[in-house]
Amino acid sequence: MSADEIVDPADARSDQMRRVLLQVGVPILGVALVIAVIAAIGVHSYRVIRDGALSLTHDLLVSQQDYIAQEVGDYLSPASAGTVIARDLLEHGAQDVTGRIFNSYGGSMLRHVPQIHSFYLADADGHFALVERDPKGQGLETTELTGLGAGAQFVHQFRDAQDRPLRTESNPTGGFDPRTRPWYRGAVRSGQLYWSDPYLIAQTGQLIITASIAFQTLDGRHYVFAVNLSLNELTNFLDSLKIGQSGHALILDQDGHLLAGRHMVDVAKKAGWDPAKMVLDPGTYPILAQAFDVYRVEGYGPHTVRSGKRNFISIAAPLPVTARKWVLLLVAPESDFANFALADGRQNLVFSLVIVALAGVLGVLLFRQGRRGDRLAEQLEQARAASGRESQALQAVAGYPNLFDPTDDALILTHGMAELSHARRVAIWRLMHDGGTLLCVDSYDSRQDAHSGGFELSRSQLEPFFDAVAHGDAIHVADAAADARTASFHLLFMRAFGSRGLSLVPVQGASGPVGVITLEDAPRAVAASHFIATIAGIVAARFSAQRYGAVAAAAAELASGERTGGSSAEEADHAFGSGFLVPPGGAVPVEGEAMPAGLFPAVAVMVITFSDLIVSARADPAKMMALVETLAVRLQDVAHRCGLYAIKMLGHRLVCVAGCSRTPDPGAAERMANAALAMREAALSVLAEADLEPVFRMGIDVGPVFGGLLGQEPRAFNIWGDAIGMAEMMAYGAPEIGTIQVTETVYHLLRQRFLFRERGSFFMPQAGVTRTYVLAGRR
């Protein structure tokens, strides 16, 4: 062979890797570089636009601040300027026209200036006059305090919009004296325009601030004139402002008391309508409270406040309109003004990505065209490999020597299905003749590489599952717990193993389903469906062969029983009289031979309990005795064939013993299990021939007992111990009639050769918590 014909596998793999890198790596790297360049340009553009936007934002907020300051000044000017004008009118007017001047001026101002709430006029003698809007209409209400002392009253006159009188009312003053009010005393004390603290009128929800001034008329009388402004209108004005997308504006005093802004009614209610408690609450205004703290530290001007992951722009500005300094506080999220920069960057990035995506699509199409042939070749190779594995599995199954022998376990069936379907667990179930029981012939756990069986499921526990099996359709369920047909099966059989998916493949017989194959967590169950269907056919043939074999054995056993029944009738009568169906030792002892006595370390004991047959056959005792005689003969025959040591009849109980020896008998438990299965079939056959339901339960235990001959001639052999009591409890506690319940000791001795179904843990007197099992059959 020349050197050119030699192929190095390592070089072939290296070429394949190089080709994949060229086909995949280079396009991906190019696209990644383009995206990185576009992203870098977008980030740089965003930062430049954002910085310019924030600079412009500060200028806009300063302009907004100037605008609000001007509006607030205009809002308060009717009080500051109007008070001075009213004072000049009143102090130069005649005494008899003072009231008319006050009412005319107040009425005119109330009609044209919406923020004015009312006017006060009081003199040094305690006289008081009030002009305000009629709360029930569009007119005015004038109030005058008449009289002094206890007889003083308020006289209210109501006028419509055309100043025509409507009605007059009066009510007691309640000791009201205007000279004690803060607005009166402040004006007299200051000698100039005085601004009071804000106060609330709870009945109307109005936050009021009063501007008052003192003056003296030509006749020497002293008066105080006051204008009441409603800050509610100022709050409505601030609410109507548009500061970015979600900005806020508040007016506060130097101590943090709220004067105007959003949610003022909620703040007033929370403060109990006490203006002194209406402060900037961080719970209601978290960002504004933080901005006010920054203002108190750094003073007036723009500031940046950060809350969480967001930046906010705040501006604190003075409102020097009143004697009490007010602060205008504006706060707006930085993103409200810079979002357009981010949106512009996103838009540019999206356009760039569209271009990259189109180029990527073209590259993917080219790459797909190149890889399509490789994928098709790989799929063909996988299909060829799967077909080869399936053919090998079928050859292995077909070459199994005892494939159709029902006495052989044929574990290769479940193993092959698990291997091809990648199932976690595969089980073959046989539907018993009554249609109400499923018996697990073999269960293979692929993770543990272990086979088990003998589990038994009853229709009473799994009604929907049995209906699905009886329907005969294949079922594939991703979550067995969520499907009504398989939920109970998952609860009883699958949940302990942690499996979820379930596939059911029916085993069809001549007259319908005779069993089912279950595959748990089998991702390739559908792909291997042809192989599994073939195995289902083989299982159906095995079930059919097993059924015919059982029928033939039963017929032979029945014929044998009929041939031996008459010849041993006399022996049976003697056995009933002595209490033994089979004497100790398996036959009548030889004269002079000593019976064993003492402790027997490992004795197999079986107790069979029968219901009261006499009650069910009270009308015909002869028929009952014939039935018992037939049953006794059959059980005697089974005991002799299985090599039991003794059988004794105790009322409605039958006690069977095997392994009564000083040294442990390793085969006693197996002989007893074989006898139990044969006796159950014999009892079922006899009762069926008599048209009676099964009326017995069976229990088995293995353990130490004491035994020996007791009394005088004729001496009787007897045994006693915990094994007898435990076997009796197993019989009485059997789950269903006709079942054989065994202890955990029996299970461990026989689990390699017999099939069992676990019942669970139970508390047994003198034994504590123990597990029990139901004997189902031989492996």
TrEMBL record:
Its main location: membrane. This is Adenylate/guanylate cyclase domain-containing protein. Pfam families: dCache_1, Guanylate_cyc. It is a multi-pass membrane protein. The lineage of its organism: Bacteria, Pseudomonadati, Pseudomonadota, Alphaproteobacteria, Acetobacterales. It is found in: Cell membrane. Keywords: Cell membrane, Membrane, Transmembrane, Transmembrane helix. CDD domains: CHD.
